[in-house]
Amino acid sequence: MEFNRRAFIKIAGLSILGLSVKPGWQVFSKIDTPEPSPDAETLAQRKWGMGIYLQKCWKDEGCRVCIDACHRIHNVPNLGTLKEEIKWVWTEPYEKVFPEHEFEVTEEDYRHKPVLLLCNQCDDPPCVRYCPTRATWKREDGIVMMDFHRCIGCRYCMAGCPYGSRSFNWRDPRPFIKNVNLEFPTRTRGVVEKCNFCVERLAQNKIPACVEACKEKALVFGDLKDPRSEIREALKFKTLYQRQPELGTKPKVYYIL
Amino acid sequence: MYDGKKIILGLIIFLGLITYPIWHNTVSGKARYVPKPELPTDKDKKECVEPKAFIRVNHKTLLEDWKTSVVRDGVRTYQASNKKKYTMSLNRTCMNCHTDKTKFCDQCHNYMGVTNKCWDCHIYPKELKKG
Fold it and tell me: For a surface tag, which of A249, B10, B72, B86 has the fewest beta carbons within 10 Å of its beta carbon?
């Protein structure tokens, strides 16, 4: 066969085509990119809220079951002093929590009843606005989250929070945790912490630890956007209190009378 | 040169002393030290979330990405290249196999003089057992 220019170009073209087989095969046989996990999309469809039945909560006044449950699973240290206290869930007397609902005729023992407090998970959270590093922010489902990795400990958020929900780690909290829960990290010195509405439990389709722990069923938790949810049923036609609603932070923790 | 012998002898002694750490480490074998991170021996713990070569180079970015994903986006499942799914968690996934960081992480980190702050907050299972 005479090897002319035409034949050469044909063979050369075919060889080049042959070279593209392997990379082409690699491109099309590649494994699909990881699927996003479903909760990323469904996050925004929900808005978590909590209701606290004051009367049920007062049945056993010295009860600390919910507080202990929360502090145990979140590795919250007990430093023993009020000045350095770290708290996610705690109580204050009624007269301090609801001064606007305290009147001349309010019965004396009512004033000193303990009211359960936790982060209000505000819809318009002042702490988020104050944070200079965006270490705290509002998730799509309304939970005000903390990124401990990012917190620089400036405590602006603590100054901004009108509810005192945030605590600062003045020293290494590790030695002050009795039983460390491996599932949850501890914090380090110089970091602010607060209630996170048990995001880590919600991700596993569990309800918050305090709600689960309460024997009197004084706490209800659920999706505020779903009109048939447990929380919405509990709030229906009830007298509701919120802490300092006049500030416009729109808390998502309701006190049910 | 005045006192040439003394100066040269002094210089040799000086050089010998100043290079002593190098000699010492070479003779004692310290210079040939290779970090040996201990791998889990259990059969079901043989496979890591990604191949060894990838982990060696990219474990820092992988952990960083996991952190961002879990904390920021709330996405907690990791689709690995071997088509398996893993929970993104330092404590529950990584440390489940590599239970003692002193025998794994620290081996290379100490050798390279790398410090990280993971363990200021996160806890490794072996740490608890020490009491």
Answer: B10
